[in-house]
Amino acid sequence: TRPIYFIPTTTLRHSTGAADIAIWLRRIDQILAPRQDRKGIAHTVSYKRAKQILESSRFAPHMQVHTSENGGAKLAVEKFKMSRPPAVLLSPPVTTGHDFVGALAEYNIVTKIPFPDSRDPVLAARQVFDAEYGMYITMQVLVQSAGRSTRSETDFSECFVIDDNFAWLISKYKHLAPKWFLDAVIRTQTIPPAPPRLWKERG
Q1: What pLDDT band is residue 203 in, cutting at 50, 70 and 90?
Q2: What SS3 state is found at 72?
Q3: What are phi and psi of 120, to 5 degrees?
Q4: Which of 87, 92, 97 is nearest to 72 (CA)?
């Protein structure tokens, strides 16, 4: 199971002001605070957002973010999987291609809806023939993000979405999302308490 908690926080865009960014950053720490006994992933979409989180969070000592200078995604993921709680992986590209079963990650934070770059000429060309192509890609990446830490029917993790663009996306493009995803969404104004841990650390 994978409850997907939508917690209205702020609408994240290029023009989002400093006050709203501060609210967004504070929300991330509010989610992390009661989950220091476990490991999780924060999907940042961009390295810029990952840097903002790393520079402001009081949990920064427990965060791992990869860049081209420190070995890239593969090394960061391997290091994260080997680490003990508390640990948070900040990463734009781990929405697909990586599995975090059981105690490897017990929560995901979708810090920003993963809209594709509208300046991409390939995207623009495809949208000439399918106006919803960009939103289809967005929904696919979002669903993959939610599923990184729940890999089977017996697995469990929480997912938190804190970008208010989510409400618009689900309202207008819910036909692009699988039923299980829509059924799992819970809108809440407060952060749910951390559930009891189900997994033990390996080794």
Answers
A1: very low
A2: helix
A3: -65, 120
A4: 92
| Identity of the highest mean pLDDT range in 67-71, 93-97, 109-113, 196-200 | 109-113
Strand, helix or coil at 46?
A: coil
Whole-angstrom distance, CA of residue 170 vs CA of residue 156: 23
Three-class DSSP category at 90:
strand
User: What's the whole-model pTM score?
Assistant: 0.91
Q: Where are the beta strands (DSSP E) in 16-171?
A: 39-43, 63-65, 87-91, 107-110, 158-163
Read off the amino acid at residue 152: S
Compute the distance between CA of residue 162 and CA of residue 44 in angstroms, rounded to an integer.
11
List the beta bridge partners of residue 90.
42, 65
Bridge partner residues of 39 (DSSP): 87
Distance CA 7, CA 167 (A): 10
Tokens for 19?
């006050």
